[in-house]
Amino acid sequence: MKKINFLTILWILFYLFVFSFLIRNSFSYLDHDLGWHLAVGKEILETKQVPHIEHYNFTLEGERWVDHEWLSNLLLYWGYDNFGYTFINIVFALIILITLIVLNIYTQRYFLPKKNGAILIVLFQVLGLLGMAGHIGVRIQEITVLFTLIVLITIHRYHLNRTHWTLLILPPLFYLWACLHGGFILGIALFISYIGLLIFTQLLKTLYKRDANFKQLQVPTLIFALCVTATFLTPYKTELFSFLNTYRDTYYLTHIQEWLPFYYFPFSYAKLMYAAFVIIAITLTAFSKHTKQTFISSWFLILSSIFLFLSLKSMRHFPLFFVISFPILVEYFSAFLETPNDNILNNKYFRSFALIKPYIIITFLCVIVANALDTNFFTNPFQNFHRTNPVGAVEFLHKHPEYFNKRTLATYDWGGYLIWTLPQNKLFLDGRLPQVYFAGHTIMEEYHEFFAENKAQEKLNQYNVELVLIKTNQGYTKLNWLEKYFFDMSEEEINKDRRYINKFLENSQDWNNIYSDPVSQIYIKK
Q: Which CATH code of 3.30.1950, 1.10.10, 3.40.50, 2.110.10 fits the domain covering 386-525?
């Protein structure tokens, strides 16, 4: 029987730690969109067809809409209904775990010929994991992170061995991806960037009168055409692309927390640190006279630069930026720092410190157990986040069905929650369609009109809103010393009272406050 070396044991323990972290993180919050994902998945299962007509929001009722995550929603609801919330948490944790393990193996095999990057892989994966924490959990966009990595590896392997069958996995992958999540557009962009760089290199050869080989473009171009064609075969066909085109408006990028740039407050220091390391690696690699640039390294530098820009523009793209930039980041710093070969952990020199090994193992096990003990396991997420969701308000409304079937204005973050827990009431807006054009601008801009100073009465009357469910307090944000004294930020300004609609409803003769708790308030029109 082959003896397992110490390095293998460490990798197993490290990824057990990662899994325990992912589970704890997943159970620590409720995704705002989970409710509507489940509701739509249930609808698809019951009707045996994808949704085409909007009926959750009274503002858009009867309009056509496209669920670009229809298959994910169906599978999510099926898993939740049959196996429970813990099961779907495990599934989504495994998606990220598999992504990190594959990324590790891929980086070591193709970017670390000296096998000297284990320490850096651990450090940068932990940093990336901390940066991604707010974007992972029960989050469907995790599928795009995994599929992006698969596309990168597939194209890279094809480029190295020119084996045409390597690319044949991509058309069915893109079809599946287009059914699961609209992020397949990024996969198409990756493929375009590869073909574009191929064309550019052949044009350069022609310019410098070298032997160009444009025939090598034939196979990837054909496969690319098949991939794009496959995305038109989903139940939505061309309508899917028309819907994704509505995301061109950028208002939501500066008004939804997870879409904000990651240099916006509140700062994500893990994201900033990781980006700083990548900027150093890109800059010094691109301009170093001692670094020999290959086609693949150039491609990764370009992609890393593009996704650095995208993640700076919107923190939601950070997980994709992490996956794409990780190989060249580890490759650069392992060469720059001249890190020792990973086998040092198994050689005689290290074995002389045998007493250290049990302590390392015990430390890992203690952290894993601590994560497990610190995880708040539960079966119904919609009853366990009283501080962030209107749990009490929804319970009150279910006890008073006379308030059902009211045109409801609710806090945007609660839209998905209410679609699942209060399906009787149609909403002004929820998390599915913030970018849709409405009333001369996006519907999210129209939604924010309700909360502007001296606008509440006009908008409530304009849309004949009958019930308002909003946050009781806007919350208080505390700044750390760095934000106060280095960034010169004002805690007083950040926490300035902007609850204009609350004040109007409190003083209005046309509205009654029928429920209030520390989290939410309900007002009903007289």
A: 3.40.50
The DSSP secondary structure of 173-202, one letter per residue, reads HHHHHHHH-TTHHHHHHHHHHHHHHHHHHH
Q: Is the pLDDT of residue 73 over 90?
A: yes
3-state secondary structure (DSSP) of residue 339: coil
| Domain spans of the chain, in order of start | 6-30+84-345, 386-525
Contact between 425 and 467 (Cβ < 8 Å): yes
Report how far residue 387's alpha carbon sits from residue 382's, in angstroms, rounded to the nearest whole number. 11
Q: At what angle do helices 184-207 and 295-313 cross, to 10 degrees?
A: 140
How many angstroms separate the CA atoms of 196 and 84, rounded? 45
The yes-or-no verdict on residue 63 having pLDDT over 80 is: yes
Rg (CA), the chain: 26
What's the rounded Cα separation, in Å, for the pair 311 and 321? 7
pLDDT bracket for residue 484 (50, 70, 90): low
309-to-136, 275, 312, 318 alpha-carbon distances in Å: 21, 10, 5, 10
Going by C-beta distance under 8 Å and a sequence separation of 6 or more, which residues neighbour residue 429? 57, 59, 412, 415, 443, 444, 447
**510 compared with 477, residue with greater pLDDT:** 510
Rounded CA-CA distance 408/450 in Å is 12
pLDDT (tens digit per residue) in 147-185: 999 999 999 999 998 888 889 999 999 999 999 999 999
pLDDT of 481 strictly over 70: no
Q: Are 312 and 261 spatial neighbours (Cβ–Cβ below 8 Å)?
A: yes
Q: Which helix (H) or strand (E) holds 10?
A: helix 6-26
Q: Which ranges in 133-169 belong to alpha helices (H)?
A: 142-161
Q: Residue 293, Cβ neighbours under 10 Å: how many?
A: 11
Q: What is the DSSP letter of 53?
A: B
Angstrom CA distances, 55 to 51, 425, 441, stand at 10, 11, 21
Condensed to tens digits (0 to 9), the pLDDT of residues 7-51 reads: 888 899 999 999 999 999 999 999 999 999 999 999 999 999 999
Q: What three-state secondary structure class fits 470?
A: strand
Is the pLDDT confidence value at 351 over 70? no
Q: How does DSSP classify residue 516?
A: E
Question: In this structure, how many other beta carbons lie within 10 angstroms of the beta carbon of residue 469?
Answer: 24
The CA distance from 89 to 379, in Å, is 11
In order of 175, 296, 380, 427, the CA distances from 246 in angstroms are 21, 33, 34, 21
User: Which residues fall within 8 angstroms of residue 452, CB to CB, at 6 or more apart?
Assistant: 500
